[in-house]
């Protein structure tokens, strides 16, 4: 197939996307006859929107946004795989603060990205904490307020922040996964439009297959690629080698599945849908199409 | 309707009329109510004649000149220069003007300011270099070609404006107190030069001046205006032969005419 | 030692003292170490990062330059057209303000959707540049000395000749003021665009990647470097502007006030008619754009869909409620931000007359503050101001004051010497000169500045809401884009633009009252 | 060093000197090289005397006045008014000035323009309302109090500037061709008014004028300047008794002195 496959990522280049970089560098996509065009993400990049405008053919998305776009706006999205079985979304705090469970947030100040606010509030409710028992302020990706004690906890991925906070403040940090606190979500769902699924099904399958190969390479020796990409894919992304290594290693258990990376099965679909329901987003199983994974 | 007609002395009957002002008046609306700058006046000026306008401050001299140049529209009546509307006529490049305020372009030096009308008229500067320099010389500013207006004295700026009014070789020349900021010696010099240029080119000239002697020396006819409302009170012919020389200034006839004019200015209807 | 030298020496000394205090706080206090890094640390980090600075810096400079060129070219062309046809300006006023008042949180994602490569950030830079540059240029083109206009007319010159020989040259200082506004805004726009667009290179991307790394020295280094580029852009157009201003202002005072010349004429009926056109035109263009590009209505609802969203169906009342609530939080703060921003711009511009050396010293500080990426200063702002109204107003002022300052300062420098001389002979000092001459003479600039600030203040507060308070319209729009709730985003943008237009027109109304007595 | 001293006619030996100009000259740097506007000149003016400055256009008259007002710094030498530096002196509100250009603030009406110096001096307007109106009346602008400069004729603007120069009751008055745009009748009137005001308040006055007759009529001494470089050529005393009446204009002594002055202006060193 000569037509390029435009792949919209969900964030800037960091170890979260190593598998794809490996597949690109090692020619796994080319071997599948794909010409993958990797488009990095960023705060203003909304991958679902890229799908809708046709800028991207395939995208990594967050479930809540995708599901609500489907149920409320009638967006023609299909999820064909999940990079993270468990979302890295966490409550991250300094160990000294003594936050060991969501309940411990009572009376604390939490910096939460506005986009995660709804989810976080529901999470509080699920754990028996009333909204007004926690002081919530906006969070803009900067760990400084946590390190300096301006806030007691932040809502962020645990893939690099705990390491960074420890490095900068010299104090131990800990995290609580949303997943483990009554809000089991996956993350970085491989999403396409119904049109793409119909017209380029083969390409999407090929993409999943090649990407899985890339991830498997990564799982086998994450540090090798961290080093390798330091001066290519990661260049200029601000990571220290230590943070990149930490990130590469800590994310692996969240992605791995005995049936291979990207796996979604009935069990995980149910969990995700149940979580969506908790935050008031309607969804049904049609949102997911597991048949492509079956063809890998 | 009667016209007050002005002719050069021995008028051939077919002498062309260059300027017709027909019952043209001007009232400015202001927040404090309308201000009559000029009651409707009529005037004819034949080709090549030199007309001086004198009158008290505020009697509408500048307004009249600005109407002739098409910069103000008369409320009623009509103004025709060479049978054309002022807006049309000035496009032909036959109009020269020096305002009461020199109005120099602050970013242009003397040379470029004098050359400005040519540029507006779309005429080339290069072939006129010599002429521009000669005009600058004429007004005594040789050596100041490159000076900016901010580097000139008040009288020097006024002289630039005089040179500029002549640069397009106009056939109708409007001068609004062009010599107001000049000393008497220079003023006399400029009077003579102006007479020379006027005679050589038969330029129909309207000169606003406060110098009665200047008016008598230069003009074929002097239009005396009165104020409140601005109007033409009297038109006085100047019978002296051309060309006129500086000794005219000391002749008794000259002084007599000046006295007549002074009386006309003071006249019974002349408001303070 | 002359007075000026002595004053400059005092300022150098002052700067050194400030740096020393900064160094102390930044290295000896725990909060300083964490969020107010000492200059030495910033420099050391920058040196370590020098290769990255080169790569990112080059990208930002390129993007900002291209954005600057496009934005200024459009601004000059538009100013020319608007000067030739004031009706056109009235008709396009809505579009102009919309382009300016469109929240970056809304535009950013849209640009990223429709353009590839460096174009999203380049276009954002151009968009930020366009309106202020156009306003400054238009002001300069309009304020033609009536004496010179008469001169051109007397020689049969029409509007073209007047434009060619008088307006253009007379507008040069204003044009350069426009450039001075535009250059830093282009950098800011580029950085903002890079921050969001997913590009790999540019200070915005550098900033975004540095942000989660807990390395304030790097963060501040990036911010300061971006500011320095902006400052350099500003300075580039400052020197020629000074020289130009001197040779452009008239030697003598014209009898007509320059502000009176620029106030648009025409009867009330005509103005109302054009106001309606101005209101309708953006909607028409919006509808055309949506229709022609055939974008999914989920992302780009047309005007009808957006209005229906607000007034029909189940969700309408909830949407109106959410917007009303957000506006109730945003508007009062924006009004404060407008006043505070204008006041700050005025004070800074006034200082350029009252205490020129002090103004020269403050200017870079203010510029750096204005160009410092807000995300980088959030922790310190929070520390100093908390997360309440004060913090929002402070952030709004930072976003707002600069174009207003440049315009005002430009106005002050065009006062003819004759007017200042008059004040001087009666023993009046700089303050009296400011109050009795400079301000009334440049009242047109003052109002132009106010009109610029009006939409900006709203934007500034929205940024603060997004980064600091998590309330109001800024937060609503930010949250909505996550939910792909483009109906809400467009509705919010529409309302914020309508408010900006209203504020802009209100300033114009006051101006007409003040100038034409 | 020799001073050219000017005194009111029968000078008591202790007559205070109001103005000392001591070897003050002014050279303007221009891109075309330095322009000597005024060679170093020295001059003393005693308190209450009336000095007229005449000289060709560009000889430095305005520059001299501006130096006295502290608006230009002399290259060398010193200028003292009542033993103070001009910058200091003008703060006391004892200086009145009318520039060659009226320099009216376009956004202020006639009344507010005349009142302007009071505001700068921090004096109240209200109690001076009557005086301001009287001055506006004096210059013949009654009824124009609310008019803006753009609604006035050239001569009317100049008259506003004259009224403004008098509003602060200055003890030192600098007038730069204040009557240049006025007709002769009004000019004579203003001459008489100026004499009256000067006599009543013993205002030390420096008047730049191109009217030799005006200079002789008003001044105690006439300073004749020459150009290239600007300098003082001669100082001529005017012996006529005070108060002077309009018939002086027609007396033979008056004409004789005017001729002397004209000759001095033309003098051997006078450049064109
Ligand atoms: N734009 C205007 N608006 C209102 N009134 C005006 C305007 N222009 C002129 N006038 C009024 O019209 C009258 C005539 O003005 P004009 O300038 O023609 O006088 P002038 O004869 O040239 O006087 P001067 O010798 O003082 O220059 C004056 O009373 C003046 O106040
Ligand atoms: N700012 C300046 N820069 C350069 N040259 C100047 C400047 N101001 C004045 N001059 C020059 O100084 C000389 C004297 O100027 P000044 O204005 O004092 O003359 P003036 O005697 O008042 O003449 P006028 O009667 O024409 O007003 C002139 O040759 C003028 O060109
Ligand atoms: O980074 C910002 O300036 O918002
Ligand atoms: Mg006039
Ligand atoms: Mg002068």
UniProtKB/TrEMBL annotation, chains B, D:
<keyword id="KW-0067">ATP-binding</keyword>
<comment type="similarity">
    <text>Belongs to the ABC transporter superfamily.</text>
</comment>
<dbReference type="InterPro" id="IPR050166">
    <property type="entry name" value="ABC_transporter_ATP-bind"/>
</dbReference>
<keyword id="KW-0547">Nucleotide-binding</keyword>
<dbReference type="InterPro" id="IPR003439">
    <property type="entry name" value="ABC_transporter-like_ATP-bd"/>
</dbReference>
<protein>
    <submittedName>
        <fullName>NitT/TauT family transport system ATP-binding protein</fullName>
    </submittedName>
</protein>
<dbReference type="Pfam" id="PF00005">
    <property type="entry name" value="ABC_tran"/>
</dbReference>
<dbReference type="InterPro" id="IPR027417">
    <property type="entry name" value="P-loop_NTPase"/>
</dbReference>
<dbReference type="InterPro" id="IPR003593">
    <property type="entry name" value="AAA+_ATPase"/>
</dbReference>
<keyword id="KW-0813">Transport</keyword>
<dbReference type="InterPro" id="IPR017871">
    <property type="entry name" value="ABC_transporter-like_CS"/>
</dbReference>
<dbReference type="GO" id="GO:0005524">
    <property type="term" value="F:ATP binding"/>
</dbReference>
<dbReference type="GO" id="GO:0016887">
    <property type="term" value="F:ATP hydrolysis activity"/>
</dbReference>
<feature type="domain" description="ABC transporter">
    <location>
        <begin position="19"/>
        <end position="252"/>
    </location>
</feature>
TrEMBL record, chain C:
<feature type="transmembrane region" description="Helical">
    <location>
        <begin position="393"/>
        <end position="413"/>
    </location>
</feature>
<keyword id="KW-0472">Membrane</keyword>
<feature type="transmembrane region" description="Helical">
    <location>
        <begin position="331"/>
        <end position="355"/>
    </location>
</feature>
<feature type="transmembrane region" description="Helical">
    <location>
        <begin position="12"/>
        <end position="33"/>
    </location>
</feature>
<dbReference type="Pfam" id="PF00528">
    <property type="entry name" value="BPD_transp_1"/>
</dbReference>
<keyword id="KW-0813">Transport</keyword>
<feature type="transmembrane region" description="Helical">
    <location>
        <begin position="489"/>
        <end position="510"/>
    </location>
</feature>
<feature type="transmembrane region" description="Helical">
    <location>
        <begin position="361"/>
        <end position="386"/>
    </location>
</feature>
<keyword id="KW-1133">Transmembrane helix</keyword>
<feature type="transmembrane region" description="Helical">
    <location>
        <begin position="171"/>
        <end position="192"/>
    </location>
</feature>
<dbReference type="GO" id="GO:0055085">
    <property type="term" value="P:transmembrane transport"/>
</dbReference>
<dbReference type="InterPro" id="IPR000515">
    <property type="entry name" value="MetI-like"/>
</dbReference>
<feature type="transmembrane region" description="Helical">
    <location>
        <begin position="219"/>
        <end position="239"/>
    </location>
</feature>
<feature type="domain" description="ABC transmembrane type-1">
    <location>
        <begin position="327"/>
        <end position="507"/>
    </location>
</feature>
<feature type="transmembrane region" description="Helical">
    <location>
        <begin position="121"/>
        <end position="141"/>
    </location>
</feature>
<comment type="similarity">
    <text>Belongs to the binding-protein-dependent transport system permease family.</text>
</comment>
<keyword id="KW-1003">Cell membrane</keyword>
<dbReference type="GO" id="GO:0005886">
    <property type="term" value="C:plasma membrane"/>
</dbReference>
<dbReference type="InterPro" id="IPR035906">
    <property type="entry name" value="MetI-like_sf"/>
</dbReference>
<feature type="transmembrane region" description="Helical">
    <location>
        <begin position="53"/>
        <end position="83"/>
    </location>
</feature>
<keyword id="KW-0812">Transmembrane</keyword>
<protein>
    <submittedName>
        <fullName>ABC-type nitrate/sulfonate/bicarbonate transport system permease component</fullName>
    </submittedName>
</protein>
């Amino acid at each position: 197939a000569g037509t390029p496959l435009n792949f919209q990522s969900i964030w800037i280049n960091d170890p979260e996307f190593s598998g794809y970089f490996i597949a690109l560098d090692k020619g796994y996509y080319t071997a599948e006859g794909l010409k993958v065009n990797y488009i990095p993400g960023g705060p203003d990049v909304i991958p679902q929107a890229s799908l809708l405008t046709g800028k991207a053919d395939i995208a990594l998305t967050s479930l809540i946004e995708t599901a609500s776009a489907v149920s409320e706006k009638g967006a023609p999205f299909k999820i064909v795989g999940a990079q993270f079985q468990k979302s890295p979304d966490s409550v991250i705090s300094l160990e000294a603060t003594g936050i060991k469970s969501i309940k411990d947030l009572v009376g604390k100040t939490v910096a939460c990205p506005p986009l995660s606010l709804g989810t976080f509030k529901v999470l509080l409710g699920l754990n028996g904490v009333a909204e007004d028992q926690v002081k919530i302020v906006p969070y803009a990706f900067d760990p400084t307020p946590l390190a300096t004690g301006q806030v007691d906890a932040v809502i962020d991925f645990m893939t690099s922040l705990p390491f960074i906070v420890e490095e900068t403040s010299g104090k131990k940090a800990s995290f609580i996964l949303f997943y483990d606190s009554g809000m089991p979500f996956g993350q970085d769902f491989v999403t396409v439009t119904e049109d793409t699924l119909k017209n380029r099904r083969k390409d999407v399958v090929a993409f999943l297959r090649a990407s899985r190969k890339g991830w498997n390479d990564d799982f086998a020796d994450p540090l090798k690629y961290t080093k390798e990409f330091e001066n290519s894919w990661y260049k200029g992304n601000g990571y220290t080698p230590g943070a990149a290594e930490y990130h590469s290693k800590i994310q692996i258990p969240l992605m791995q599945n005995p049936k291979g990376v990207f796996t979604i099965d009935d069990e995980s679909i149910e969990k995700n849908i149940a979580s969506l329901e908790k935050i008031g987003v309607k969804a049904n199983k049609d949102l997911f199409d597991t048949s492509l994974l079956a063809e890998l | 309707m009667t016209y007050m007609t002005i002719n050069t002395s021995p008028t051939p009957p077919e002498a062309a009329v260059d300027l017709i002002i027909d019952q043209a008046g001007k009232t400015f609306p202001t927040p404090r109510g309308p201000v009559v700058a000029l009651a409707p006046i009529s005037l004819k000026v034949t080709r090549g004649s030199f007309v001086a306008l004198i009158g008290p401050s505020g009697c509408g001299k500048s307004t009249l000149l600005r109407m002739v140049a098409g910069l103000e529209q008369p409320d009623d009546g009509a103004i025709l220069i060479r049978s054309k509307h002022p807006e049309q006529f000035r496009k032909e490049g036959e109009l020269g003007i020096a305002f009461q305020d020199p109005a120099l372009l602050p970013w242009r030096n003397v040379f470029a300011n004098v050359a400005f009308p040519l540029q507006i008229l779309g005429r080339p500067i290069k072939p006129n270099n010599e002429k521009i320099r000669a005009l600058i010389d004429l007004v005594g500013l040789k050596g100041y070609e490159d000076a900016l207006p901010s580097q000139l004295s008040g009288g020097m700026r006024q002289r630039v404006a005089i040179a500029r009014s002549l640069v397009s070789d106009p056939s109708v020349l409007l001068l609004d107190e062009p010599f107001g900021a000049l000393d008497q010696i220079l003023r006399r010099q400029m009077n003579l030069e102006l007479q020379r240029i006027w005679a050589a080119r038969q330029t129909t000239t309207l000169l606003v001046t406060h110098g009665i002697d200047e008016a008598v020396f230069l003009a074929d006819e002097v239009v005396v205006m009165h104020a409140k409302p601005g109007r033409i009170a009297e038109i006085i012919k100047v019978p002296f032969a051309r060309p006129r020389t500086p000794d005219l200034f000391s002749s008794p006839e000259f002084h007599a005419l000046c006295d007549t004019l002074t009386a006309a200015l003071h006249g019974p209807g002349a408001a303070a | 030692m002359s007075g000026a030298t002595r004053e400059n020496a005092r300022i150098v000394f002052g700067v050194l003292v400030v740096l020393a205090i900064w160094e102390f706080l930044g290295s000896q206090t725990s909060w300083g170490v964490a969020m107010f890094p000492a200059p030495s640390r910033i420099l050391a980090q920058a040196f370590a990062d020098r290769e990255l600075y080169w790569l990112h810096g080059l990208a930002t400079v390129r993007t900002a330059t291209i954005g600057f060129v496009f934005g200024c070219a459009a601004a000059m062309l538009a100013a020319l057209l608007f000067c030739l046809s004031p009706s056109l300006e009235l008709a396009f006023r809505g579009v102009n303000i919309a382009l300016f008042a469109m929240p970056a949180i809304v535009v950013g994602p849209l640009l990223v959707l429709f353009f590839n490569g460096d174009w999203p950030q380049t276009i954002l830079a151009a968009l930020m540049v366009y309106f202020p540059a156009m306003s400054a240029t238009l002001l300069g083109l309009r304020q033609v000395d009536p004496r010179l206009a008469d001169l051109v007319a007397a020689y049969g010159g029409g509007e073209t000749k007047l434009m060619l020989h008088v307006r253009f040259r007379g507008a040069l200082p204003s044009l350069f003021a426009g450039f001075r506004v535009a250059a830093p805004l282009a950098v800011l726009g580029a950085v903002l665009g890079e921050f969001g667009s997913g590009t790999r290179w540019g200070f915005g991307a550098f900033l975004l990647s540095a942000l989660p790394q807990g390395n304030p020295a790097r963060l501040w280094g990036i911010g300061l470097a971006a500011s320095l580029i902006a400052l350099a852009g500003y300075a580039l157009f400052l020197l020629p502007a000074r020289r130009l201003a001197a040779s452009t202002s008239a030697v003598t005072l014209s009898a007509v006030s320059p502000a009176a010349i620029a106030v648009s004429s025409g009867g009330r009926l005509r103005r109302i008619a054009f106001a309606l056109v101005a209101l309708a035109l953006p909607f028409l263009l919006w509808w055309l754009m949506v229709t022609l590009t055939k974008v999914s209505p989920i992302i780009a609802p047309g005007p009808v869909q957006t209005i229906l969203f607000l007034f029909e169906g189940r969700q309408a009342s909830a949407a109106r409620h959410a917007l009303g609530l957000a506006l109730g939080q945003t508007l009062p703060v924006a009004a404060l931000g407008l006043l505070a921003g204008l006041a700050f711009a005025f004070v800074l511009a006034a200082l350029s007359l009252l205490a020129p050396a002090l103004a020269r010293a403050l200017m870079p500080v203010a510029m750096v503050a204005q160009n410092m990426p807000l995300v980088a200063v959030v922790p310190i702002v929070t520390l100093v101001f908390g997360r309440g109204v004060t913090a929002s107003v402070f952030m709004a002022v930072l976003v707002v004051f600069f174009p207003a300052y440049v315009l005002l300062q430009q106005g002050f420098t065009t006062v003819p010497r004759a007017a200042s001389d008059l004040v001087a002979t009666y023993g009046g000092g700089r303050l009296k000169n400011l109050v009795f001459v400079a301000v009334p003479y440049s009242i047109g600039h003052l109002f132009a500045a106010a009109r610029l600030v009006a939409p900006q203040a709203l934007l500034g507060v929205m940024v603060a809401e997004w980064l600091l308070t998590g309330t109001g319209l800024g937060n609503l729009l930010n949250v909505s884009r996550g939910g792909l709730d483009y109906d809400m985003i467009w509705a919010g943008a529409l309302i914020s633009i309508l408010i900006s237009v209203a504020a802009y027109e209100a300033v114009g109304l006051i101006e007409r009252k003040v100038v034409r007595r």
